[in-house]
Amino acid sequence: MAQSKVAYGKVAAPARPGAVVRENWISFRYLTGVMVMLTLVSIFHVWSRVEVIDMNLRIGEASRQFREQQQENKRLKVEVASLKAPARIEALAKGELGMALPTDQQVVLVK
């Protein structure tokens, strides 16, 4: 028969019960750390999305107010133009204040 060499140096040592518990404890700590990190990242993601939605709502409200102010500005410009009309001012002066255009004798030229 052929001679076979047996390597006795690589025989597995008997398992120590404390080593298995220690490895499980390290795994548990690692998994706990990973879960904490995932939880923190998830909370940050949800918070950032809520902030983005809130900011979009604020931008929409500001845009709506800006459009309303622009319309109000246009309306006030039209009102100012109508109040400045010379025909309106003359009608108010004659009607409410009893004024009349001056005659030639009432006009004094200053040199």
From TrEMBL:
Topology in the lipid bilayer is annotated as: Single-pass type II membrane protein
- UniProt subcellular location: Cell membrane
Q: Which NCBIfam families match?
A: ftsL_broad (TIGR02209)
Listed under GO biological process in this entry are: cell division
Q: Tell me where the transmembrane regions lie.
A: 28-48
List UniProt keywords, sorted A-Z: Cell cycle, Cell division, Cell membrane, Membrane, Transmembrane, Transmembrane helix
Q: What is this protein called?
A: Cell division protein FtsL
